[in-house]
Design goal:
Blueprint: E1 5-7, E2 18-19, E3 23-24, E4 27-28, E5 45-49, E6 56-61, H1 65-80, H2 89-105, H3 107-118, H4 122-145, E7 149-151, E8 158-166, E9 169-173, H5 179-193, E10 196-200, H6 207-218, E11 226-228, H7 233-242, E12 248-252, H8 255-266, E13 271-275, E14 281-284, H9 290-302, E15 314-318, H10 322-333, E16 337-339, H11 354-370, E17 373-376, E18 380-383, E19 387-391, E20 394-397, H12 404-407, E21 414-420, H13 423-431, E22 438-442, H14 446-455, E23 460-463, E24 482-483, H15 488-493, E25 496-504
Parallel strand pairs: 1-16, 2-6, 9-10, 9-12, 10-11, 12-13, 14-15, 14-22, 15-21, 20-21, 22-23
Antiparallel strand pairs: 3-4, 5-6, 7-8, 8-25, 13-24, 17-20, 18-19
Helix pairs in contact: 1-7, 2-4, 2-5, 2-6, 3-4, 4-5, 9-10
The structure holds nicotinamide-adenine-dinucleotide.
Length: about 525
């Protein structure tokens, strides 16, 4: 008897297989399975099987270097002739607002395909798609209010203004874990700035990006302003990262690929923004509201089956409460509903692929060998009527800071429990690692929370909460968790170039050349 909460197959009817197409220069490119000429050099199809249901969800053409170059050329032409960048902020905002409206109107069909491609629960997918519409709305507000700076204290005969101009053509490369949400953390901000874009979604979850392409055309976005090329990192992503006509590449994904992208971009010194991995700690002090903390720990580690850059995959619990607190999170973990993503009651769905499931298992096996104890889970989960493409909620105790499970990103529903005695010790443990995406602290003492927040090396620190986010509040990592910031006002600035304009008023400057 597993004593977990498992939601069996709901028997929901699955939709027809979706056929995706590249979007270049305002038109969807015909592909070999359809009437009309095949695009030059097209090299086949990716068939995406639903990780939860095992059936074909979508077919996606594999992009080539030629297609990536055609998309970059379309974005370059669209930027250079000013068809988007020269519009007023008001005109750009109007299109972004229309897109937000269309996203909301299409939430159900987008959420369904996102669920089937990624394995995430349908209720969560609906929340992500409709929440993304709000990112588009917020970006629209930035398009209207964006402005530079003026220097009015340089003396009566001088005036300087700092102009903000769109950086140009932006390559956007996204991962599979939050396909539409992450795209919406980047694309509307780039568009608000006046940039043009080439997008490459993950080969595992391309469909909502292509649907968005349809919505962009419907909203009246000029041709070539957003282009979508489908396929793999090699050669499509690599071409987008290295091509001389691209001015910036923004990437979300693994740290290893991010490093490669920074290296590829260095040949033309283009701007690079990276949102990478994390090994994010929640630190629990004895004076915390322990029931809220336990709930947040369980949410932090199982949300999106732990396939989340912000996964709270390690906790540091004060030694005095470690045993009781761990017992409580084991108890709560048993109540989290794992199972069929199409059942609205499900909170945690399937692992994205068999290969990734095997990687999660290897991390747990290595932790066992290193001396950690499996307090709960530790293996694949067979969901009645669906199969084994799921993983049990897993809690590892007796973890020491030197173990790989305390330091490496697992990207699965696996929690490493460590202990500490003092705030200083907790901060040392928090900061002892390669990553710095997010960190959290639980205490009723404001001094403890503030000292922690100031000392933690992380792009975001949560106090007495976990993973709350807002379009207004910027997001990003330090150390090997990334470069640059997304969303918020800073998320717009990433896509802008700064130009200083220095002006003399009147002919007051003494000549440099002294008359002979
Ligand atoms: P990944 O790095 O394997 O792939 C991400 C994207 O890069 C995909 O579109 C892929 O096709 C493309 N790609 C692969 N090789 C490439 C290459 N050589 N050149 C250019 N593009 C290439 O990541 P993933 O497995 O899709 O996502 C999981 C990772 O993403 C995790 O490490 C996670 O922490 C990270 N992530 C970070 C954040 C964040 O905001 N910090 C958010 C979500 C996910």
């Amino acid at each position: 008897m597993l004593d977990l909460t498992v939601i069996p197959a709901s028997g929901a009817t699955l939709p027809e297989v979706r056929i995706n197409r590249h979007l270049i220069g305002g038109a969807f490119v015909p592909s070999p399975a359809e009437p009309g000429p095949a695009p030059d050099g097209d090299s086949g199809w990716i068939e995406r099987l639903s990780p939860s249901h095992g059936t074909v969800v979508s077919r996606t053409p594999v992009g080539t270097i030629q297609l990536a170059e055609a998309a970059i050329a379309a974005a370059r032409a669209a930027f250079d002739d000013g068809r988007w960048s020269a519009l007023s902020g008001k005109a750009r905002a109007a299109v972004l607002l229309k897109v937000a409206e269309l996203i909301e109107a299409n939430t159900d069909r987008m959420a369904l395909i996102e669920t089937l491609e990624s394995g995430k629960p349908i209720t969560q997918a609906r929340g992500e798609v409709s929440g993304a519409a709000d990112l588009w709305r917020f970006a629209a507000s930035l398009a209207r209010t964006l402005h530079g700076d003026s220097h009015t204290s340089l003396g009566p005969d001088m005036l300087a203004v700092v102009l903000k101009e769109p950086i140009g053509v932006v390559s956007i490369i996204t991962p599979w874990n939050f396909p539409f949400w992450i795209l919406s953390q980047k694309l509307p901000f780039a568009l608000a700035a006046g940039c043009t874009c080439v997008v490459k979604p993950s080969e595992l979850t391309p469909s909502t990006t292509v649907i968005l392409g349809e919505l962009l055309l419907e909203a009246g976005l000029p041709a070539g302003v957003v282009n979508v090329v489908l396929g793999y990192g090699q050669p499509v992503g690599a071409t987008l990262a290295s091509h001389p006509s691209v001015d910036m590449v923004t990437f979300t994904g693994s740290t290893a690929v991010g490093r490669g992208i920074a290296a590829a971009a260095s040949s033309t010194l283009k701007k690079v923004a990276l949102e990478l991995g994390g090994k994010n700690p929640q630190v629990i002090f004895p004076d915390a509201d322990l029931e809220s903390a336990a709930d947040a720990v369980v949410f932090g580690v199982y949300f999106n089956v732990g396939q989340c850059c912000n996964s709270g995959s390690r906790i540091l619990v004060h030694q005095d409460i470690a045993e009781a607190f761990t017992a409580r999170i084991v108890e709560l973990s048993r109540q989290v509903a794992f199972g069929d993503p199409l059942d609205p009651a499900t909170q945690v769905g399937a692992i994205v692929s068999r290969e990734h499931g095997a990687k999660i298992d290897a991390h747990v096996a290595a932790a066992r060998r290193a001396g950690a104890t499996v307090a709960l889970g530790g293996k694949a989960l067979e969901v009645p009527g669906l199969g084994p493409q799921f993983y049990q909620p897993t809690i590892l105790t007796g973890v020491t800071p030197d173990m790989a499970i305390a330091r490496e990103e697992v990207f699965g529903p696996v929690l490493a429990v460590l202990t500490f005695r003092t705030l200083d010790e907790a901060l040392t443990l928090v900061n002892d690692g390669d990553y710095g995406l997010s960190a959290g602290v639980w205490s009723e003492n404001i001094h403890t929370c503030l000292a922690f927040a100031r000392g933690a090396q992380a792009g975001t620190v949560w106090t007495n909460t976990w993973m709350d986010g807002f379009p207004e509040v910027t997001f990003g990592g330090v150390k090997q968790s990334g470069l640059g910031r997304e969303i918020g006002r800073q998320g717009l600035d990433e896509f802008m170039e700064i130009k200083s304009l220095v002006m003399r008023i009147g002919r007051t400057r003494a000549p440099w050349v002294r008359p002979r």
